[in-house]
Amino acid sequence: MISIIVAVSDDWGIGKDNELLWRISEDLKRFRRLTTGKTVIMGKKTWESLPKRPLPNRRNIVLTDIPQECIDCSITAYSIEDALAKCPEGEEVFIIGGGSVYRQFMAIADRLYITHVHRKAPADIYFPVIDSGIWKIREQEEFPESETNPLPYTYIIYERK
Ligand SMILES: NC(=O)c1ccc[n+]([C@@H]2O[C@H](COP(=O)([O-])OP(=O)(O)OC[C@H]3O[C@@H](n4cnc5c(N)ncnc54)[C@H](OP(=O)(O)O)[C@@H]3O)[C@@H](O)[C@H]2O)c1
Predict the structure, then answer these.
(1) Does the predicted TM-score (pTM) go above 0.85?
(2) What is the mean pLDDT of residues 22-31?
(3) Long-range Cβ contact pairs of 124-127 (< 8 A, separation 24 or more)
(4) pLDDT bracket for residue 48 (50, 70, 90)
(5) Which of 27, 88, 138, 160 is most buried, by CB atoms within 10 Å?
(6) pLDDT tens digit string along 72-87?
(7) What atom of ligand 1 comes closest to residue 124's alpha carbon?
(8) Which residue's C-alpha comes closest to atom 7 of ligand 1?
(9) Structure confidence at residue 87 (pLDDT)
(10) Does the beta carbon of 125 lie inside 6 Å of ligand 1?
């Protein structure tokens, strides 16, 4: 089972200057809950953007094209096939970014955990538009704007049709 997990703006932005567009504390907690104990696969730029490396209590697989490069404290992989071969069989694997890695895994992912953040924000990295001919909504939960939640967002889990 290959799952993509991402937070996207209303205009599909996901990052700028190698950083996230927002930090929504509840969303980051959910990310930790869903991925703890699992394998996470990410591109090298996302790895470099993490405030704490590796993500604790997860198998961290980092993709790079640079042959022989061995990224400290991670399992280094040199292609998406190599990354998948380094995952335990039969477990849900989380693709955690960034843009280049999401694009490559969209064709083979089974599930998308999307946090749709209801804001437009300047970005330089985008997520591909989700094609409703390919993906159906399995679960949806709304978090409206409130005193404690300045950024309204919706969690949607999509599954391949
Ligand atoms: N909103 C969210 O949920 C979210 C989540 C994660 C990241 N982000 C954002 O996304 C941005 C980073 O995305 P990005 O597209 O610039 O970079 P990225 O996908 O994180 O990393 C790109 C790098 O990964 C390596 N790579 C990618 N595909 C590969 C493959 N098939 N084989 C081998 N190596 C491969 C290459 O490393 P080498 O250069 O070493 O070859 C490539 O330069 C940041 O702004 C980050 O904050 C947002």
Answers:
(1) yes
(2) 95
(3) 124/15, 124/16, 124/17, 125/13, 125/14, 125/15, 125/16, 125/98, 125/99, 126/12, 126/13, 126/14, 126/99, 127/6, 127/8, 127/12, 127/13, 127/14, 127/99, 127/102
(4) very high
(5) 27
(6) 889 999 999 999 999 9
(7) 45
(8) 98
(9) 97
(10) yes
Does the beta carbon of 7 lie inside 6 Å of ligand 1?
yes
**Which pLDDT score is estimated for 132?**
96
pLDDT higher than threshold 90 for residue 126 = yes
Kindly give the distance from the C-alpha atom of residue 146 to the centroid of ligand 1, in angstroms, as a whole number.
Answer: 33
For ligand 1, atom 22, which residue shows the shortest CA distance? 43
- The response to whether residue 63 sits with its C-beta less than 6 Å from ligand 1 reads yes
